[in-house]
Design goal:
This protein has 13 helices and 2 strands; from the N terminus they run ααααααααααββααα. The protein has 322 residues and is mainly alpha-helical. Bound molecules: benzoyl coenzyme A (BYC).
Length: 322
């Protein structure tokens, strides 16, 4: 093929790919895809997987201190669900031709990010309520739209994850209801957790659309189905009546209903704080990664055992065939 023919062929492949995406056909692992699509998906899905796994740490911190046996069992189940979400998402990423070891290395050396929210400490039991309600609530807003993402394995993973997230959100809100309707000290604990987790939850949706490096490409390829700002607005609007029901004060003093937009206008996020946290300088960034490295090293024997078992199986099959 001449250079001209090659470039014509590449354009045809890209056009064909884009028309499949536009026609809402799912892209599957063995299908042709533009290198930029593959790279962007590996980035987003792996960072999503890392978020699920690192997100186990702030909640895991309260399993031994949950206030009742029932709460302990529920929290334990939730944290285990997050591990499962990480596994589906790592598997979806591996279907794009990258190994789990490479993904873990990128998390541990800081070249891959994970959701900023998990770099905030969980100081009280109220924080476990606020995480389930606000953090899982924000995650649902985002992930419901990702159920329609163009990459098949990611979309299918999202459908299952969303079902589990809605249970997570409800368990968090139920903790908040009990605290908010409890003693003055309990109500104060709920308010304090809401105050500390509200703004970081809004940051989960990423920078403003005008500042978002990947949004334009991701929207064109239908990796993302709604923009950062649109999803954030949805979350802001749905949270207002939930805060009212709890009888708590809204942390955003500039929040105001805008009749002509049909949405709430809100105060500005502290973007400097956001940049600090995503660039490794939040309260808990170092602690989270150190803990991950330690747990990963302690689990090396499990991975070694799995490799040894696979080799034995292969040798048995070869012997049987001989
Ligand atoms: N935190 O161009 P942009 C859960 C980065 S876990 C950290 O807008 P994009 C749960 C972004 O990665 C659910 N980094 O990016 C688990 C990019 O950096 P790189 C987590 C952020 O990808 C346990 C740069 O900023 N959900 O529910 O188009 C317990 C520019 O941003 C953040 C997901 O992961 C952030 N908040 O849009 C409880 C959803 N925001 O990669 C609960 C899947 C932005 O160039 N991900 N960055 O170095 C997405 O939907 C999108 O990736 C985002 C960002 C909306 C987050």
């Amino acid at each position: 093929m001449t250079a001209t023919d090659q470039s014509k062929h590449a354009t045809e492949l890209e056009e064909n790919f884009q028309s499949r995406v536009d026609a809402e056909q799912k892209i599957e692992p063995k299908d042709w895809m533009p290198p930029g699509y593959r790279k962007n998906l590996i980035r987003q899905i792996s960072q999503h997987a890392h978020s699920e796994v690192i997100g186990m740490q702030p909640e895991g911190n309260w399993i031994t201190r949950a206030p009742s046996l029932r709460r302990k069992a529920v929290l334990l189940a939730k944290v285990q669900d997050e591990a499962g979400h990480g596994l589906y998402l790592y598997s979806a990423t591996e279907s794009l031709g990258i190994s789990r070891a490479e993904l873990i290395a990128a998390l541990q050396d800081g070249s891959a990010k994970y959701a900023s929210i998990f770099n905030y400490p969980t100081q009280t039991w109220g924080d476990i309520g606020a995480i389930g309600w606000l953090v899982d609530g924000a995650a649902i807003c985002n992930q419901v739209s990702l159920q329609r993402t163009s990459y098949g394995p990611y979309a299918r993973g999202m459908i299952r994850i969303c079902k589990e997230e809605s249970f997570h959100q409800r368990q968090g809100y139920q903790i908040m209801i009990e605290l908010a309707k409890g003693s003055p000290a309990q109500k104060q604990m709920a308010q304090d957790s809401l105050n500390r987790f509200y703004w970081p939850s809004l940051m989960m949706f990423g920078p403003h659309d005008s500042e978002s490096a990947h949004s334009a490409k991701s929207m064109k390829w239908r990796i993302k189905r709604e923009t950062n700002d649109d999803l954030r607005q949805k979350f802001i609007d749905q949270t207002v009546p939930q805060i009212e029901y709890l009888g708590l004060e809204h942390p955003d003093k500039e929040l105001k209903w805008n009749e002509s937009r049909g949405h709430y206008d809100s105060g500005e996020i502290d973007w400097e704080e956001f940049q600090n946290v995503i660039n490794g300088n939040g309260h808990c960034n170092r602690q989270r990664i150190q803990h991950h490295v330690k747990a990963h090293e302690e689990g090396a024997w499990v991975r070694d055992a799995q490799i040894a078992y696979n080799e034995k199986q292969k040798a048995r099959q070869t012997d049987a065939a001989a």
